Amino acid sequence: MELDTNLRVTIVNKIRLKLALWFVCTVMLLYSAGGVASLFVFKAMLTRSVDMSLEDLIAEIRPSVQISGENPSLQYWSSTAQVRPTSLLATVQLWDEHKKLIEEYGPEGVRRLEDGSLKIVEGAKKEVVRSKFSRIESKGVLYGYLQLQVSTKPQDDAIKQFALAVLAIAPFVAGGVGGCAYLFSGQAVRPIERTMLLLRRFVADAGHELNTPVATIEACLETIRDPDKLGEMSTDVMNMMERASERMRHLAKDLVTLARIEDPEAELLRVTCDLKEMAETVVSNLLPVAMERNIDLNLEKFPEVKMTAHAESILEIMSNLVENAIKYSEENGKVSISAEQRDHSVLITVTDTGIGIPAESIDMIFDRFYRVDKSRSRDVGGSGLGLSIVKAAVDRHGGQVHVESELGRGTTFRVLLPLHHRQKRSGFA
Ligand SMILES: Nc1ncnc2c1ncn2[C@@H]1O[C@H](COP(=O)(O)OP(=O)(O)OP(=O)(O)O)[C@@H](O)[C@H]1O
Ligand SMILES: [Mg+2]
Fold first, then answer.
1. What is the pLDDT, as a whole number, of residue 198?
2. Across all residues in the chain, what is the average pLDDT?
3. How many whole angstroms from 387 Cα to the centroid of ligand 1?
4. How many helices (H) and strands (E) does the chain have?
5. Range 393-411 average pLDDT
6. Based on the structure, what is the number of domains in the chain?
7. Atom of ligand 1 nearest to the CA of 387
8. Which of 322, 227, 309 is nearest to 261 (CA)?
9. Pairing state of beta strands 296-299 and 334-341?
10. Higher pLDDT, 238 or 355
11. pLDDT at residue 2 is higher than 70
12. pLDDT digits over 51-91, tens only?
């Protein structure tokens, strides 16, 4: 059992780890794509802002350009102005109309008249400058060009730092996402874990239920093989074998019925059912069993009610409840089935004056293979699946089942079913 639990924990942990890993991979892939995209956007924004600053500076300096002779000049400006461009580390260049550099102020720039990113390569020194120029014209005559250049090093450094920050945060993002994913996958896996547990328990219970009749048949076969032992016991042996095989047949039928009703994939054919007719069939089928134990089985107030439902499920609900009512009643008891039509639903009631159900067992009677008194219900051939079938069938029809019981006085099962399919659940009033 402990080994089983360990195995289950290992499987569940493996699933959780896998889920967490997949989640981390997906998030990190998105994080990387987001990081690269942000880098490009960041770079484009910085370049755009440098270009705008250069354009502003050109517009600011342009009025200070003097035309002396044939060439433009900034000498007066350089001797008098507070040279603002240098605060931006900009290079100011003046070119004549033949594109020859004639004046340069500020840090040494690239000797090329060109807009855009210009590379400076001087031995090991590699730098990129951003460059903008404007034509110097007067009365339609071209006198030269005013060009401004600025190093992109501060922007490149900012981009590098941004990239480093994205990389440095990555392990924390991965760790955080991984931790959360592992935690939340625990919640996601819980229903699977529960289903696994229920399935194991179900298989174990079903196997256990089969054990007794199989053991009975084996013992009977032993007796049959030994003619000395068989003697006059032959009828008893045959009867025992018949009962054992009947029990297995009953169990197999209940398992198939339950699996079919509970299978959400299985389409249950819904037809118009005459509930009164069905109740009459159930009563007449079980009357011989009731009479055998001198139990008064009655169909009480039961109006003509038609409902759209899976006929087999409705029959299962009625017959299991009436069968239980008879099985768990003492001789001379009373069992009745009645119905009452409400607005859009029908209330079916099965009442008995039987042994009743202890309060602590009420919540468990719908569980598979649960029996209050195992030895007693085994005597009457029950495997504990009847009420599970009832609950599954009621749920499948969007209804509710309710039980009231008093030990030694009797039990009442009430089943509320909507008359038509896909109707909103209605509660017990
Ligand atoms: N009307 C009732 N009165 C007293 N106890 C009941 C009644 N109906 C059900 N029970 C209790 O609930 C248990 C579960 O009922 P359920 O119908 O699921 O199983 P079962 O009758 O033992 O076997 P099966 O229906 O598979 O033949 C029963 O074993 C019994 O102890
Ligand atoms: Mg039963």
1. 84
2. 88
3. 7
4. 9, 14
5. 95
6. 2
7. 18
8. 309
9. parallel
10. 355
11. no
12. 999 999 899 899 989 887 788 998 888 887 665 555 557 89
* Residue 108 falls inside a structural domain: yes
Same domain membership, residue 8 and residue 154: yes
Q: Which two tokens stand for residue 81?
A: 């102005």
Which range of residues forms the domain containing residue 109? Answer: 2-159
Same domain, 9 and 145: yes
Is 104 within a domain? yes
Query: Ligand 1 pocket: which of 243, 246, 365 to mutate (most atoms <8 Å of CB)?
Result: 365
- Calculate how far, in angstroms, residue 163's C-alpha sits from the geometric centre of ligand 1: 70
What is the pLDDT at residue 78? 82
- Backbone phi, then psi, for 131, in 5-degree steps? -125, 145
pLDDT tens digits, one per residue of 408-427: 999 999 999 999 876 444 45
Residue type, 362: I
Q: Which amino acid is at 413?
A: F
Domain presence at residue 361: yes
Is the domain of 14 the same as that of 149?
yes
Q: Please indicate, yes or no, if residue 168 is contained in any of the structural domains.
A: no
Is 370 a pocket residue for ligand 1 (Cβ < 6 Å)? Answer: yes
CATH classification at residue 12: 3.30.450
Is residue 228 pLDDT above 80, yes or no?
Answer: no
Q: Are residues 290 and 149 in the same domain?
A: no
Distance (Å, whole) CA 13 – CA 9: 6
- Looking at per-residue pLDDT, the higher value among 250 and 86 belongs to 250
Please say which residue of 159, 189, 215 terminates a domain. 159
List the residue whose alpha carbon is closest to atom 7 of ligand 1: 324
Ligand 1 pocket, residue 385 CB under 6 Å: yes
Find the 269 Cα to ligand 1 centroid distance in Å: 28
Same domain as 155, residue 279: no
Residue 192 Cα, ligand 1 centroid: separation in angstroms?
29
Domain boundary among 159, 184, 219: 159
**Tokens 């600011």 found at:** 60
Residue 347: phi and psi, rounded to 5, are -110, 115
Task: Judge whether residue 5 has pLDDT over 80.
Answer: no
